[in-house]
Task: structure prediction
Amino acid sequence: MWHAVVVNAHPELRLPSGMRAVIEPDRWSEGSYTLVVDGTPQSHVDLDDPSRLFFEYVQRIGHVIDEWGEPGRPLTALHLGAGALTLPRYVHATRPGSRQQVIELDEALVGFVREHLPLPRQSGIRVRYGDARAMLGRLPAALHGAVDLIVVDVFSGARIPAHVTSLEFYDELRAFVAPGGIVAVNIADGPGLAFARGQAATLGMVFGDVAALAESGVLKSRRFGNVVLVAGVDPLPLEWMPRLLARGPHPATVTAGADLRRWIAGAAIVTDQTAIPSPAPSAGIFTVKQSGA
Result:
């Protein structure tokens, strides 16, 4: 099995934004590492087995990817937000031959990741640098109507920027989605889930079907956490829902159809004029102590 080793025990980089990026070895899993940016864990990578996903919300997106098409069938993917390229690595490992485009604002961060957590050879992963929304207009015309999977995981620190949350933004994304294609959006929100409900309502205006996946306590508005919203131009296959629920990670909730409409509960559609960043988590929810900070 292909294997790479981080050269330094705790490589770190001061980013142009002033934030500090560190790659921390996973003490419990040899060959695994966590990318931490300004004290917030951003990504987890298992270099020995990229098909092994660690973060709860990433596992949920991985399960959605597994449900698309035939197992192992190559797909065309577009990832907005790179982190440590965890999901592009996952797609490469589980669907060899896939074509993947990644858009990431921070070129220094990706260079840091690729130096210390190298991509597999001939991975088919192409990284483009720039703002996630602005770069959509610079993607190859051949991708219009040809992308099977779009993953939206764009954060500035611990918050989602406003300009990648609006009706107009999702309209731009829709132009790339192939028939039967899916969009997975990672949302971070707190009790009440006003932001997540607004995002679900907005996606529902653009796409034919939407489902929400989350840890049960998060979806019941009990605490801050991640909600994965999955949307399709075509209706999402009904058989996906019980399978996604069964695959966890548990305790899990999968909400779609009439239940999702009740969950949205009249949340307003988000436009470029009304969009705001996602709420900031309370101090200490996602942060970890970094040595030497």
